[in-house]
Specification:
By secondary structure, the protein is an alpha/beta fold. It folds into 2 domains: 105 residues, no CATH class; 192 residues, Rossmann fold (3-Layer(aba) Sandwich). The protein is 36% helix and 22% strand. The protein is built from 10 helices and 11 strands. The strands form 2 sheets. Strands 4-3-2-5-6-11-10 form a 7-stranded mixed sheet, with helices on both faces. α4 crosses α5 and α5 packs parallel to α6. The longest helix is centred in the N-terminal third of the chain and has 19 residues. It binds S-adenosylmethionine. S-adenosylmethionine binds next to α3 and β3. S-adenosylmethionine (SAM) binds next to α3 and β3.
């Protein structure tokens, strides 16, 4: 990956979104903006000085994501809610059945943005069982640590020689040599990753990346209608706390800190209404950064209908289906590029 290009790829949209988050969290926590340190999410997934090199921090970040997914899909009650409905695993399985009815066997490319092995292996295994395997797999990750694990997880489900992995910022995809031919693509963005980006940026970017007929599968954490406990539980999970702490220590070393979670409204004027959840570490070690509040992650969430609105906002996509867990907290949304 070209480090200089990657560093330059900060859009005005990203800058404006970050400025808004910076001001909102300072106001919500009632501290001066100078006490808050916030950077783009993507910076925690790679080392800009050595973007192709895997190190212990990046491996741990990848492993935490993998453990979160493993815990999620192997817990039969996660996502089910008080009145029954689908668990996270069942919602994913239902989505795979939907995909199998729309994907021609061996006649589409599977393109994964921000790869992880647990859900992806479940999807590819399901597609193979339903006789709808892809012609190829392409994984694009800014974090080089995912490469060997993904190869191992995916190789058995795609034809020999058709597996490709790119270590790069997916925002540069339009400038990368993608294997587009006449076959359509199924592009996936799972694990609340879309929420890690400014909403209009993503909507527009998907429009430019996908061609008419391509499909887009995204996973989003939703704002449930009344009971927000799934969101609180997620951010209170030990793995999310570890993820936050790792993001801090990778930059500041082993400083003492206190974990926190702050919720603010989405900025006005965006195509969909929702919230932004930020995790923070307040440094409490008496050293030069004492008292600083480091934002370790920010992630947008929408009510289910707003998530549809967001996808259809620029007229380039038609939502084909949206499968939601019983507790109303997670959606798998399948859309087609018009
Ligand atoms: C929140 S994790 C989600 C991981 C996984 N998709 C899942 O379902 O759990 C975000 C993933 O996207 C990758 N990522 C984040 N920003 C990226 C960027 N700008 N370009 C490429 N990959 C990126 C990270 O390395 C990480 O693997």
């Amino acid at each position: 990956m070209d480090a200089a290009l990657n560093e330059q790829s900060v859009t005005t949209e990203q800058e404006d979104f970050l400025d808004y988050l910076h001001a909102s969290i300072a106001e919500t926590l009632r501290v001066p903006e100078s006490e808050i340190l916030i950077k783009l999410n993507k910076h925690k997934y790679h080392d800009a000085g050595a973007p192709d090199v895997t190190n212990g921090d990046l491996t741990e970040v990848f492993n935490i994501m993998r453990e979160l997914n493993l815990a999620g899909v192997s817990n039969p009650s996660l996502g089910r809610g008080h009145n029954g409905g689908l668990s996270l695993r069942e919602a994913l399985q239902q989505t795979v059945r939907e995909l199998a009815t729309r994907c021609d066997p061996g006649a589409y490319h599977y393109v994964e943005l921000g790869p992880e092995p647990i859900k992806t292996a479940l999807i590819l295994e399901g597609l193979a069982d339903l006789a709808a395997p892809p012609a190829s797999y392409l994984g694009i990750d800014i974090n080089p640590a995912s490469r060997p694990v993904m190869r191992e997880a995916v190789a058995r489900y795609v034809p020999a020689g058709s597996l490709r992995q790119v270590v790069d910022d997916y925002e540069r995809l339009e400038r990368l040599p993608l294997p587009w031919d006449r076959k359509p693509a199924l592009v996936t963005m799972l694990g609340f990753q879309e929420g890690n980006e400014p909403p209009s940026d993503m909507t527009d970017w998907y429009r430019r990346l996908l061609r008419p007929g391509d499909m887009l599968l995204c996973e989003m954490q939703l704002v449930p209608q009344s009971d927000w406990s799934p969101i609180y539980c997620f951010y209170n999970d030990d793995l999310m706390r570890r993820f936050s702490r790792k993001t801090l220590t990778a930059k500041f070393g082993d400083v003492k800190s206190e974990y926190g979670v702050t919720v603010v409204a989405m900025p006005p004027g965006y195509p969909a209404k929702g919230i932004v959840v930020m995790t923070t570490e307040r440094i409490v070690d008496g050293g030069p950064f004492n008292g600083k509040i480091v934002v370790t992650n920010y992630c947008t969430k929408y009510p289910a209908d707003e998530f549809r609105t967001l996808r259809e906002a620029n007229g380039a996509f038609e939502v084909l289906c949206q499968t939601v867990t019983g507790d109303g907290s997670i959606a798998f949304q399948l859309a087609r590029r018009r």
